[in-house]
């Protein structure tokens, strides 16, 4: 690691500490309380004992966020994961040598342990009057922020890390500097916990299914491939939990769900990352209509739990998640939006011509399903700002869904859209093994080998179905997109701790 001038100065301080017999990275810490808990204890005591002195002694730890020194006195602000507090270091309590060591060795960004009693400063700020301190970890590199400055009793933060590329690439620095970023990921955890509670309270069992799979399936996507050396076996990172979760329905687990990572070898965008978090569930004896109502309740409950409201701000608009959500039948929605009746075009060729006649430029190699997807993406999805269920999809783009009894060309499927993006997907699941085998065969013939829409045959899944699978409703939702919605972030990279990024050398070469 090549050091700059500031880093060299800090390394010199490390050497000076060690020469004085002080270890800048000690093995043990005696911190016994969080900053926020200490402040809360002090404030509670003040309120209940206004005429008494607070005698409790605390040992706090945290990162130094600001330093201000003068002759016989020094002030600092430190911060841990719970909050921030001011330190007062005085000659009377510490002695000249210790005070000089603090001034000489400590910098913004270092981790410090400070022992003492709590008091109020002249400005009324809760302050730790320090009687002893020690270095917990010397920061060699200054964080990419100039400093925190106190102006008229207010902390002013200068030069916070703001470049998105740097923030995502050095997320550890981003988190250390930007409290609002830390809050995003606290919110993310709260969202997951709320979803788990909701599922558990409705009798669902949380399970874990394989990430490494010999046959990928359950979605339309290209997988990542890997190789098991001992077994001499090609394996795939899962693109969906679906086929394994539905195997559990065969085994008698009637309501199952999983929250975990999926991996898709596809392009990246503001709403796509190669690895992402999904919630999937399968519900025996339910259908897509029941799942619609369940979805409304689940998402709105998560918003209420985490934000305290079902109305959220996203992309400058207020979105009301309160049930019931709007429902739009797919055929009618496309007809209303662009004047094309997809039922009048059962083949890709005629649908392509109808789109071209309307001035569109579809890919002539596209299947009918992909052409319909293009219509949804161009005319419907961007306009579904308030929560909307788009339902009743064509059979040829939904290989795992059950047909409508009155129209075998249409399947019982819905997608949920909010804020102009797809949030979730659901089916009345196919449970006829003979029909399923035929669908697999059709999907294999209809697409080229490198087409992400191709769905491989899964003989073991068919075997499971042949033992009898109860009718069921299935559901999948991107957790990352839900967190985007609830935190008002327009890029998926903002809500994933370590998003996938292009190598820096590739970026520079371009």
TrEMBL record:
Residues annotated for Mg(2+) 2 binding in this entry:
422
User: Which organism encodes this protein?
Assistant: Pelolinea submarina
Q: Matching SUPFAM superfamilies, A to Z?
A: Class II aaRS and biotin synthetases, Nucleic acid-binding proteins
Please give the GO cellular component terms listed in this UniProt entry.
Answer: cytosol
Q: What is this protein called?
A: Lysine--tRNA ligase
User: Keywords on this record?
Assistant: Aminoacyl-tRNA synthetase, ATP-binding, Cytoplasm, Ligase, Magnesium, Metal-binding, Nucleotide-binding, Protein biosynthesis
Q: List, alphabetically, the InterPro entries matched.
A: Aa-tRNA-synt_II (IPR004364), aa-tRNA-synth_II (IPR006195), aa-tRNA-synth_II/BPL/LPL (IPR045864), Lys-tRNA-ligase_II (IPR002313), Lys-tRNA-ligase_II_N (IPR044136), Lys-tRNA-synth_II_C (IPR018149), NA-bd_OB-fold (IPR012340), NA-bd_OB_tRNA (IPR004365)
Subunit structure of this entry? Homodimer.
Where the record annotates domain Aminoacyl-transfer RNA synthetases class-II family profile, the positions are: 185-499
Query: Which GO BP terms apply?
Result: lysyl-tRNA aminoacylation
**Is the keyword Heme in the record?**
no
Q: Which reaction does it catalyse?
A: tRNA(Lys) + L-lysine + ATP = L-lysyl-tRNA(Lys) + AMP + diphosphate
Q: One GO molecular-function annotation for this sequence?
A: ATP binding
**What family does this belong to?**
Belongs to the class-II aminoacyl-tRNA synthetase family.
Q: What is its EC number?
A: 6.1.1.6
Q: What is the lineage of its organism?
A: Bacteria, Bacillati, Chloroflexota, Anaerolineae, Anaerolineales
């Amino acid at each position: 690691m090549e050091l700059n001038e500031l880093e060299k100065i800090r390394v010199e301080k490390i050497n000076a500490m060690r020469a004085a017999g002080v270890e800048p990275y000690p093995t043990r810490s005696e911190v016994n309380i969080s900053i926020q808990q200490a402040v809360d204890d002090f404030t509670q005591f003040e309120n209940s004992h206004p005429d008494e002195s607070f005698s409790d002694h605390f040992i706090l730890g945290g990162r130094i966020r600001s330093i201000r020194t003068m002759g016989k006195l020094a002030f600092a602000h430190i911060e841990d994961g719970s909050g921030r507090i001011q330190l007062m270091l005085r000659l009377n309590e510490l002695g000249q040598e210790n005070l000089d060591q603090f001034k000489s060795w400590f910098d913004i960004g270092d981790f410090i342990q400070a022992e003492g009693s709590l008091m109020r400063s002249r400005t009324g700020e809760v302050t730790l009057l320090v009687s002893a301190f020690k270095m917990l970890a010397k920061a060699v590199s200054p964080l990419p922020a100039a400093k925190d400055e106190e102006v008229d009793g207010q902390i002013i933060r200068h030069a916070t890390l703001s470049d998105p590329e740097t923030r995502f690439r050095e997320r550890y620095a981003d988190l250390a500097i930007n409290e609002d970023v830390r809050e995003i990921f606290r919110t993310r955890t709260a969202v997951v916990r709320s979803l788990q509670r909701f599922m558990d309270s409705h009798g669902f069992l949380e399970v874990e299914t394989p990430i490494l799979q010999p046959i990928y399936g359950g979605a339309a996507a290209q997988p990542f491939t890997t190789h098991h050396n001992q077994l001499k076996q090609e394996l795939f990172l899962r693109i969906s939990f679906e086929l394994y979760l539905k195997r559990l329905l065969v085994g008698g687990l009637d309501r199952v769900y999983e929250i975990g990572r999926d991996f898709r070898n596809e392009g990246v965008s503001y709403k796509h990352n190669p690895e992402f978090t999904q919630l999937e569930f399968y519900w025996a004896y339910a259908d897509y209509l029941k799942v619609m109502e369940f979805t409304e309740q689940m998402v709105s409950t998560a918003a209420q739990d985490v934000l305290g409201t079902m109305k959220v701000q996203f992309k400058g608009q207020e979105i009301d998640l309160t049930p019931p959500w709007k429902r739009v039948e797919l055929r009618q929605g496309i007809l209303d939006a662009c004047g094309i009746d997809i039922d009048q075009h059962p083949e890709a060729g005629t649908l392509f011509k109808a789109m071209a006649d309307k001035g569109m430029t579809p890919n002539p190699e596209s299947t009918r399903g992909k052409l319909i997807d293009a219509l949804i993406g161009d005319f419907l999805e961007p306009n579904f700002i308030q929560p909307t269920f788009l339902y009743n999809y064509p059979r040829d783009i939904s290989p795992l869904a059950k047909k409508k009894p009155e129209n075998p060309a249409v399947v019982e499927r819905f997608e949920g859209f909010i804020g102009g993006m797809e949030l979730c997907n659901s089916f009345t699941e196919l449970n006829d093994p003979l029909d399923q085998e035929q669908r697999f065969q059709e999907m294999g013939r209809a697409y080229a080998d490198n087409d992400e829409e191709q769905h491989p045959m899964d003989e073991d899944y068919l075997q499971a179905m042949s033992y009898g699978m109860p009718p069921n409703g299935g559901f999948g939702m991107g957790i990352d997109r839900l967190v985007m919605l609830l935190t008002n972030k327009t890029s998926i990279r903002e809500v994933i701790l370590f998003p996938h990024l292009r190598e820096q050398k590739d970026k520079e070469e371009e």
